[in-house]
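Recall that a protein's primary structure is simply its ordered list of amino acids. Everything else, from secondary elements to tertiary packing, is in principle encoded there. The following example makes that idea concrete.
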Amino acid sequence: MNTILTDSEQKAFAAKQKELSRQICLTDSRDFSSLQTVAGVDLAYWNLPDGSEYAVCCIVVLDMQTKQVTEKVWSDGAITVPYCPGYLAFRELPLVQEAVGKLQTEPELFVFDGNGYLHPRHMGIASHAALLLQKPAFGIAKTYYRVHDADFTEPAPESGSYTDIVIGGEVYGRALRTHDNVKPVFVSVGSGISLDTATDIALSLTDKESRIPLPTRLADLETHTARTALQNQTQQSSQETI
């Protein structure tokens, strides 16, 4: 496959993002106080010996009350869209859709390891997926994605402190401290949920083990397990054909 996006591909993707961004809802689409199921989504990548790129998408569904895992699925496959900042969703959504199709339960909320509204065209993976899946979603990023060269202000060191990321007079997302004196995470709306509600849910799903909320942390751990299993499977198949 091509290793870079062509100018025409970038223009087409950007046009699609701008079109979709008009559908984003930055307010709560339901009463989230009665939320029962939430799903964390993450992907892991690797290269085969021939240089082709593969990935696995893992989804972990949690019970909101018990914080226990009720279901987990994965889908793997070749990645056909080259990496280019700002267009991550076009690489990942085919596998996300495939994995969602394997779920026996229907999550009420999706949390993505990545951004949503915190994006040059407000269409990070969480926004694009929320509209595609027609489910509320938000993103939690471990590192800051700089949009239009804007920086963020560090929140106070106490757990629960936050600062809004304001660009051109508009709130794009939020830097959130989930534990005392740890690096912040970055919360942004996908669609169908407000930033305040997303922040509250992120804090309620963060335990003492990590600064990352449980849904995406567990999905991340699952991607490592799945990737190792798939790589071993591929290696074994290769040895059998020798």
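The radius of gyration is 18 Å. Residues 93 and 198 are 21 Å apart (CA to CA).
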